[in-house]
């Protein structure tokens, strides 16, 4: 029975992934600052160990017991306004945690076969304006010259030394994750409680998204597929505009009882500050490399994904 060590295991993706790993018979160790505060264990194959990024402390036993590491740690990008202090937190939580892992894998005797590390499609800039069919960003595109582009570059560079230690390293640039447990999708749903379908800005901006179930399956696929290494975009094959996503979701939740409202770009800039750039940005990202590796999406299109997330039992994702 193989052991998977997860950083960021108590977050949105980490929780879903832990469940899937346990179902597949793996042992799971989750790194957390406060292992004693974790809720009652859901399995005897699950344990919690201590790490503290600021103090540069890591449980050496956990490293020596693990066969794989899935590195998801990082402060939420969308949770708070991007003050200079918050931006530093976002960068440090990713870069320092990656560095801590890489340095300790160098010094602690271990049998780690592969490291699957999160990154994000924030790596990419915006689509070329005025193009009807924007050219999809592929993994060899340079990082955007903005806050998120630079954050992703530093993040990926900090974990890269792992590959020089003979470990297989996979970096997954994840799109907007659709899940009922939190993140962007729960924000999309909030105005619909009041019957408002809130289209952001023009609504023409393209969202490269991924259903949480597919994201978990991608991580497992990367873990178990020895031919995978380097960067892969974790996005569904059919990106969608903000307007289409908002209106489809409104129909699923409210039927015909909703009012489409465009939230002006200037208002979003006032409300969100610098973060509004990302909310209004159109980024069409390619999934081809992942499909070429043999991955088959359960939710390639937005409609079946929304059917599943809004509880329509009559419509299942394509297997």
Molecular structure report:
- The chain is α/β, with parallel strands linked by helices.
- The protein has a domain at 3-179 and 209-235: 3-Layer(aba) Sandwich (Rossmann fold).
- Helices cover 35% and strands 20% of the residues.
- The longest helix has 24 residues, at 84-107.
- The radius of gyration is 20 Å and the shape is globular.
- The model is unreliable at 313-319 (pLDDT under 50).
Shape: globular
What does the radius of gyration come to? 20 Å
Strand content: 15-25%
Mean pLDDT across every amino acid position: 92
**What is the share of helical residues?**
25-40%
The largest β sheet comes out as: 8 strands, mixed
Q: What class, by secondary structure content?
A: alpha/beta
The count of β-strands is 14
Terminal Cα separation, in Å?
A: 27 Å
Q: Note the run of SSEs as H and E.
A: EHEEEHEHEHEEHEEEHEEHEHHHH
In the CATH hierarchy, the third-tier topology of the domain at 3-179 and 209-235 is known as: Rossmann fold
Q: What name goes with the CATH superfamily of the domain at 3-179 and 209-235?
A: NAD(P)-binding Rossmann-like Domain
The first-level CATH class of the domain at 3-179 and 209-235 is given as Alpha Beta
Layout: helices, strands, pairs:
Layout: E1 3-7, H1 12-23, E2 27-32, E3 46-52, E4 57-58, H2 60-65, E5 68-71, H3 84-107, E6 114-120, H4 147-159, E7 168-174, E8 176-178, H5 184-189, E9 196-200, E10 206-207, E11 209-211, H6 212-224, E12 230-234, E13 240-241, H7 242-254, E14 259-263, H8 265-272, H9 276-280, H10 288-292, H11 302-309
Parallel strand pairs: 1-2, 1-5, 2-3, 5-6, 6-7, 7-12, 8-11, 9-14
Antiparallel strand pairs: 3-4, 10-13
Helix pairs in contact: 1-6, 3-4, 7-11
